[in-house]
Amino acid sequence: MTTVLAETTDLLQQLIRNECVNDGTPASGHEVRSADLLASYLTAPGVEMKRYEPSPGRGSLVVRIEGTDKNAPSLHLMGHTDVVPVTRSGWQHDPFAGELIDGEVWGRGAIDMLDVTASMAVALKRLLHSGFRPKGTLIYSAVADEEALGTWGAQWLTEHAWDDVKSDYLVTEFGGVRMPIGTGTKLPIMTAEKGSQWTRLRVKGTPGHGSMPYKSDNALVKASELITRIARYKAPLHVGGLWKQFVDAIDLPAVQRVALTNAASFDAALDRVPTGADRMIYAATRTTLSPNIAQSGVKLNIIPDTAEVQIDIRTLPGDDGETVHKMLREAAGDLWRDVELVEEGHNPATSSPRDTPLWDALTKVTQRLIPGSTTVPFLIVGATDSRFFRRKGVVAYGYGLMSEKIPFGEFSKLFHGNNERIDQDTLALMTPLWDGVVREMLG
């Protein structure tokens, strides 16, 4: 094992063991543990380092190396340190032990995204120790609360410490996983991400005695039908713009390329896509509505007069706001007359242009590390901290480099799933990726 790989592996294991679990409550996370760890790891003469703790325990770290040329572009490498909760009974190994087993580091956050956070830090430390002086300012951040909307992390920093984190270009999670579609090694750079419009609906009924359910107006029964209809609903298809750029870039046979960019043939073509990729492609071409939480009833022998359904809605550009309301009405059909929209949060989709020096640098370094590979544009179907920076004019991409050790179908299930792990071949690609990109952009 090389010194660099051993160092990256060790730092990743320590981050996993810090158990910075973010359950969405302000008192969770405790990311200050990892902010302290990384601050200690990166301390060096002449390095400007700041820690922020806007709420107790919710710590973020920002490291700045000022450039020698104030007119040169600046680059920000951003990782987050919080992880989502686990169901321990579903794991083969302790999710917070950070064990190295058969060349894989196991633990919550190994893929999402402590591998990137750790490898960026190792690359930065090695750059500092090599005497590298960037022409443009280089920033590294390890932020809190990404897994719960970024309130105490990236959002807070962009609102309260903008001068410390602003840059021309930014890289964070997540891309570089080998797509099991097309010809050759195709590695997506995430130039965009979907928005979200999380929505709470209230279904109305009429109370009554639980012993007489015949012809009752049971809000929970109606809510169950509403949930089924929403889950089955297919939003309008988007096969232009970024999706067409992606399909054109992955060297598909002409028939398949046409099928995947034509609304009439798309669904049939999707059925022939490899398992794992089909879910991501569906989400990349449609706004999705996923009813994930339902609540109803106050007592077992009372027919409920209300039920609430919470829906995770992820929007493509142009599909938010009233367009989502139209989709919900179409999905609900005749049930809509008994539905009230109680609450929703608006988070519009964001994107960055492809024709930039950062795209060129990522592509050049990638082709050095994985000869014969091609970078292609794609979008993240979830949400990342990039959105806060894009809204302030920063060009932001999601990237990384993944080996072939974990098959795509399994890899995609590890995000927020059981038995999350990352292989060392991936870690061996990540650290030189960031080193190379910094030298290309700022050298």
Just name the CATH architecture of the largest domain: 3-Layer(aba) Sandwich
| CATH homologous superfamily classification of the largest domain | Zn peptidases
Can you count the helices? 15
User: Percent helix among the residues?
Assistant: 25-40%
- Name of the top-level CATH class of the largest domain: Alpha Beta
What is the CATH third-level topology name of the largest domain? Aminopeptidase
Q: How many strand segments?
A: 19
Euclidean distance between termini CA atoms:
28 Å
Instruction: Give the domain tally.
Output: 2
Low-confidence stretches: none
How large, in whole angstroms, is the Cα Rg?
A: 23 Å
Mean pLDDT: 95
In the sheet with the most strands, the strands line up as 1-2-6-3-7-18
What does this structure look like?
With 443 residues, the chain is an alpha+beta fold. It contains 15 helices and 19 strands. It has 2 domains: 274 residues, Aminopeptidase (3-Layer(aba) Sandwich); 150 residues, Alpha-Beta Plaits. A hairpin with a 7-residue loop joins β1 and β2.
Keywords:
443 residues, alpha+beta, Aminopeptidase, 5-stranded antiparallel sheet, 15 helices, 21% strand
Structure summary:
This protein has 443 residues and is of the alpha+beta class.
What's the SSE blueprint?
Layout lengths: L2 H15 L14 H11 L5 E5 L7 E6 L9 E6 L19 E2 L2 E3 L3 H20 L8 E6 L10 H7 L1 H4 L3 E4 L13 E8 L1 E2 L2 E6 L3 E2 L9 H14 L8 H9 L4 H6 L3 H8 L6 H9 L2 E9 L5 E2 L2 E10 L6 H11 L6 E6 L5 E2 L5 H13 L4 E7 L5 H5 L4 E4 L9 H7 L6 E3 H19 L1
Parallel strand pairs: 3-6, 3-7, 7-18, 8-17
Antiparallel strand pairs: 1-2, 2-6, 4-5, 5-19, 8-16, 9-14, 10-14, 10-15, 11-13, 12-14
Helix pairs in contact: 1-3, 1-15, 3-15, 12-15
